[in-house]
Amino acid sequence: MDKLKGMASDAETFWNRTKQYTEEKIGNAEKTELDAHFENLLQRADRTKSWTEKILARVEAVLQPNPNTRLEDYVNEKLDRRPRDRDTNAEFLAQVLVDGGNELGPGTQYGAALVQFGQTERKMGQLEREFIHAAYSNFIAPLRKFLDEDMKTIQKERKSLDIKRLDLDSSKGKLRRAKSMEAQRNAEAELRIAQTDFDRQYEITKLLLEGISTAHSTHLERLKEFIDSQQTFYAQSSQVMTDLQRQMGNFPGSLGGILPPNSAPPPTSVAPPSKEKTLQQSDRQKAKVLYDYDASDASELSLLSDEIIQVYSPPGIDPEWVIGVRGTQEGKVPLAYLELL
């Protein structure tokens, strides 16, 4: 019986709210107006929600231009799955450059340049990964949490306030329509309860709306962190490309040694080759490795940038290759990767 009474009471409450809402829409019922300050707080919350969503969408599009990939990451996040580890576009390019350079001949100037460029692009890809991770951790995740938690709480409390206002205005209407003294006493008691509930919900909602100011301050700090991570990424990328440009200028016959169009070569005189820079066939010489090199077969020797090895040129070897010696290891190495000492 108590359950049936409760259901009847809920049905009556729902009917009163629906009736009040409908009459307000057609202008047959009065509506409690919120003060101007509260309305401003509501508008600020709406603007904050709207622009946070737009900013997040565009930042995510910059970090991951592929919409299908963004959708896949979003689904994995909602299902608490670990995002799939993907190579960046720079890393895909790096692999093609390195493979092409090794196929065309890492001992040739062009092949060596392709390999070196590929290694640089791989570094660029790693820097991009670090930037994306920092952007998601320091900017995207906090703002998304704000939308998923704080804004949803505000929306929930705003909805509760709307319901309490409908109850309050419905109670006011009942009091105006009451004819008998008993009906008036019941309506007044109901109105006091509705007013108390409305005032309590009003304060709760107002407190949450005023917290948007704190959210703005937090978002500002997150924005600074995003800017710092982006600046670091661009600075590191610039340094990596500057290093590549310098290294490319050290390649024999590279752009650093090409004459401008229509310019005549400087006069030269025939002189004996320098003993310090000429690679002798019979004597071993020291050489500094300019770039990393991975041996393609057992006849070659892998190299590490900046290491010092010994080299010599046996009869019949390709002029673009020499024999490198590191301790007990020995094998062919491309001359373009070395600086003779």
Protein described:
- The protein starts with a helix and ends with a strand.
- The chain is built from seven helices and five strands, in the order αααααααβββββ.
- The longest helix is centred in the middle third of the chain and has 69 residues, at 109-177.
- It has helices spanning 2-26, 36-63, 67-78, 89-104, 109-177, 181-210, 212-249, and strands at 285-289, 308-312, 321-326, 329-334, 338-340.
Major β-sheet strand ordering: 4-3-2-1-5
Number of strands: 5
Mean pLDDT reading: 83
> How large, in whole angstroms, is the Cα Rg?
37 Å
How is the biggest beta sheet arranged?
Answer: 5 strands, antiparallel
General shape:
rod-shaped
Distance between the amino and carboxyl termini: 102 Å
Structural class category: alpha+beta
Low-confidence stretches: 253-278
Tally of separate helices: 7
Beta-strand percentage? 5-15%
Along the chain, the helix and strand elements come as HHHHHHHEEEEE
